[in-house]
Design goal:
Blueprint lengths: L1 E5 L6 H15 L3 E6 L13 E5 L13 H16 L3 E5 L1 H14 L11 E6 L2 H4 L8 H9 L3 E4 L2 H11 L5 E3 L16 H5 L6 E7 L7 H12 L4 E7 L4 H10 L6 E5 L5 H4 L4 E4 L8 H8 L4 E4 L14 E4 L4 H13 L1 H16 L3 H17 L2
């Protein structure tokens, strides 16, 4: 198949999954064309089956916002026609599915007998829970869903939220996020500890795009409580609007020597390989890819009973789930994992086994079957 993938290039779960999906499809012999404003952060080295098309945005002083959605539609239309794409897979309803819809309209006179390509849309969360929750955007999101040839969601939770909020005409297929366990596994070499100046401390880690929903302040408060009872170090991977607040809290609590702000990193496996616990106190989480990748590396997760977490994290087996905002409870459970090595080892081994149920190859097969149904009109 010839597949176009439209996704965000920035740090985050949706871009990571879209890119890893495209790379896996290319390895299986499909031709994949990526559309984005910049190269997706996990794209890495190119293969002969992968092509990247940069969407160049014109800026015009009459308009406050750049023409990204229009430029994306034009680029999709151009490549879809000349490369004879079978499917364009939009990751996020807005703007990607909407731009692909416009691309189809651009091509109507060139593909008179049938649609030039089938439009698949994957909902990742923010397009529903944030953009879609805005009253002014609800009809736009509903249109993008209903005009797609097929729609998937990354969790049962997200499917239920989409149905509740939009009552869409399209049936939504759940295909969960995935992890390549050939890449994400706990490495035995620990040179990274020496590089970061880590000695015998236990390591707590958090990875995200530092948006308000990730509750970065709660992470600092939990870690502050942990530091009173354990010899611990906190690694914060990522960046975003909540970083400044986190830095202020770190200084206020006197934790400067115990917290490392590492910024946006692509290769996170070395860090996960030395981590003992991952903290994910999010208020909402459509799936929680960072947690799954941590589990593949044998890292138990202390997270919230929010969104997709309960679909793959069993409390007491893979870590613990608590109510959002329960700083005391998360501190208690994290301390339990950090202080009881036998319990930690059992959870760590269970995490690795659970991650294998979400192996990339298994989920890519589901996407291939999904594309096949779309092309067959089923």
């Amino acid at each position: 198949m010839k597949i176009g993938i439209s996704c965000h290039h920035t740090y985050g779960g949706s871009g990571a999954i879209a890119t890893e999906l495209g790379k896996a499809l290319a390895e299986k012999g499909h031709t994949v064309h990526f559309f984005s404003q910049a190269a997706p952060f996990r794209l890495g080295a190119f293969s002969r089956n992968i092509f990247y098309h940069e969407v160049e945005v014109m800026h015009y002083p009459l308009f406050e916002c750049p023409f990204y959605s229009l430029a994306l539609a034009s680029k999709i239309a151009e490549v879809a026609f000349y490369e004879k794409l079978d499917v364009v897979h939009a990751h996020y309803a807005i703007p990607h599915a909407l731009s692909a819809m416009l691309a189809l309209q651009m091509l109507e006179d060139k593909c008179k007998d049938s649609k030039c390509f089938k439009l698949a849309t994957t909902l990742h969360g923010t397009d529903i829970t944030v953009v879609g929750a805005d009253r002014g955007m609800q009809n736009v999101v509903r249109l993008a869903i209903n005009k797609s040839d097929g729609v998937t969601a990354v969790s049962d939770y997200l499917k239920a939220e989409t149905v509740r909020m939009f009552n869409p005409k399209k049936e939504i297929t759940v295909i969960p996020n995935f992890v390549n366990t050939a890449l994400f596994f706990r490495a035995t070499k620990n040179e990274i500890r020496e590089q970061l100046g880590i000695k015998d401390e236990k390591v707590v880690i958090h990875i995200s795009n530092f948006r308000p929903v990730k509750c970065i302040g709660d992470i600092i408060r939990i870690f502050n409580a942990l530091s009173r009872s354990a010899n611990v170090l906190l690694l914060l991977v990522g960046d975003g609007p909540e970083r400044s607040e986190a830095e202020v809290l770190v200084r206020q609590f006197g934790l400067i020597d115990r917290v490392r702000f590492l910024g946006k990193l692509v290769d996170i496996v070395p860090l996960l390989s030395i981590a003992d616990v991952m903290l994910m106190p999010s208020n909402a989480e459509s799936f929680g890819l960072a947690a799954l990748e941590a589990m593949a590396c044998g890292v138990p997760v202390v997270a919230t009973m929010a969104g997709g977490f309960p679909e793959f994290i069993v409390p007491g087996t893979h870590g613990y789930l608590l109510a959002p905002g329960d700083i005391e409870g998360m501190t208690e459970k994290a301390l339990l994992l950090l202080s009881d090595h036998n319990h930690w080892r059992e959870c760590s081994e269970a995490c690795v086994l659970q991650a294998k149920r979400y192996e990339t190859a298994l989920l890519v097969e589901q996407y291939e079957a999904f594309y096949t149904r779309l092309l067959a009109g089923v």
